[in-house]
Amino acid sequence: MFKKDRMFPRFALYGFLKNLRFFDPFIILIFRESGLTFLQIGLLYSIRDVATNILEVPTGVFADAFGRRKTMVMAFLAYIASFIVFYIFASFPLYALAMVLFAFGEAFRSGTHKALILEYLTINKMEHLKVEYYGRTRSASQFGSAINALIAAALVFYSGSYRVMFLAAMIPYTLDLFNLMSYPRELDGELMHISKETVGAQMKATLKDFVGMLTDFKALRAILNSSSFSGLFKATKDYLQPILESFALSLPFFLLLSDKQRGAVVIGAVYFVIYLCTSYASRSAANFSRRFSSLGRAINLTFLGGAGLLFLSGLATWGNLTALSIFVFLGFYILHNLRRPMNVAFISDQISHRVMASGLSVESQFTTILTAIFAPLLGFLADRFGVGAALTVLGAGVLAMFVFVRVDEAVVRE
User: Fold this and answer.
1) CA-CA distance, 336 to 227, in Å (whole number)?
2) Cβ-proximal residues to 124 (8 Å cutoff; 6+ apart), any chain
3) Which of 46, 128, 250, 300 has its CA 20 to 30 A from that of 342?
């Protein structure tokens, strides 16, 4: 049975503060206001993800070899630097620079905090609670996103500006920096203080484990299943924003408010509901997975369900059934957050805890590759044929990928 312990509040606080990115519910609208096309927005996502991809493996190895806590601190410093650039400037080239700085943060962070949690569970002989523990900490992250939506909407409503949200986001990220610095040193893992003479040997040993993980067919399929769905989610999730804006402007309410204020009210309210639902979904991931004969079966069926929901949302948007599209998008968000704790647990069963940060960084690396492909393709299709058609085509394409990423369902629950 799950019980909260001394580290759970700090793990949960990390996720809560990390998700106070006030610009997130409006990021596509910010870029569109700056005059960018959907293709340029997709290219910015690709720049972010390609840069993250280049840095992913080295930073994962750095975390395992030199300390996960230091890696997380470096991540948050890079995030804060990117927020400063986004706030001061508003052009495609400088947005690209900000995306590269953001990529440094993503590369240092991705997989590393999950590895800290999994290391803590291993030390305290709580590995059997992986889905529940990670699911509940992720629930705190999603609750942070719900609160984030309300604060972001209030900032836009009262300031009349999208850009101020980059400045405001520096506050929770600075607080999270201090939270991470309070983590115990034992969570850095087996690789602690390394002298200059042994650095080369240690790096070779870590890389050997890392390469060995990639040659394991079952582990690779688990990573590809998770990363292809996550890449689809990352590339498409923000397209809910123009759908919501269109919906807000079509409503016969709040007519005395400006278009930006009306959009802020609707977007803030909808995202608040979405993230309350996804918070509950993450918390319920363990119970949800037990409804299936195996964890692998749960992962496979939710992959098909999520890609199918995106396909349906695209069709609804294409047919001007905006309310239905928003409702189906909600299901897509919920399934993603049900899957994430299950994917982390499934992947962690395939690889050694010694290289956990590297292993989870590989999953993030594949996610960034696929997002870098999906995002500009989606942007091109949206500029050419509309958002609805773009979502429909991409959803159908990922459904077709299932045959290549289906994971093993052989382990049946007793």
Assistant:
1) 11
2) 5
3) 46
Domains of the chain, residue spans: 8-405
Structure-token pair, residue 340? 């994430």
Amino acid letter at 111?
Answer: G
Backbone torsions φ then ψ of 191, nearest 5 degrees: -90, 100
- Cβ-based neighbours of 4, under 8 Å, separated by 6 or more: none
Q: What is the DSSP string of 91-136?
A: SHHHHHHHHHHHHHHHHHHTTHHHHHHHHHHHHTT-GGGHHHHHHH
Which residues are within 8 A (CB) of 106 and not within 5 positions of it... i.e. 6 or more apart?
48, 52, 75, 364, 368
Cα–Cα distance, 194 to 65 (Å, whole number): 8
The burial of 257, by beta-carbon neighbours within 10 Å (0-12 exposed, 13-18 middle, 19 or more buried), is given as: middle
Max Cα–Cα distance, the chain, nearest Å: 71
- Whether residue 271 contacts residue 25, with contact meaning beta carbons closer than 8 Å, is answered with yes
Tens-digit pLDDT profile for residues 231-267: 999 999 999 999 999 999 888 877 788 889 999 999 9
Any idea which fold 8-405 has? Answer: Growth Hormone; Chain: A; (1.20.1250)
Q: Using one digit for the tens of pLDDT, what is the confidence trace for 147-183?
A: 999 999 999 999 988 989 999 999 999 999 999 989 9
| Rounded Cα distance, 103 and 94, in Å | 14
HSE-CB at 301 with a 13 A cutoff on CA atoms is 12
Write down how long the chain is.
414
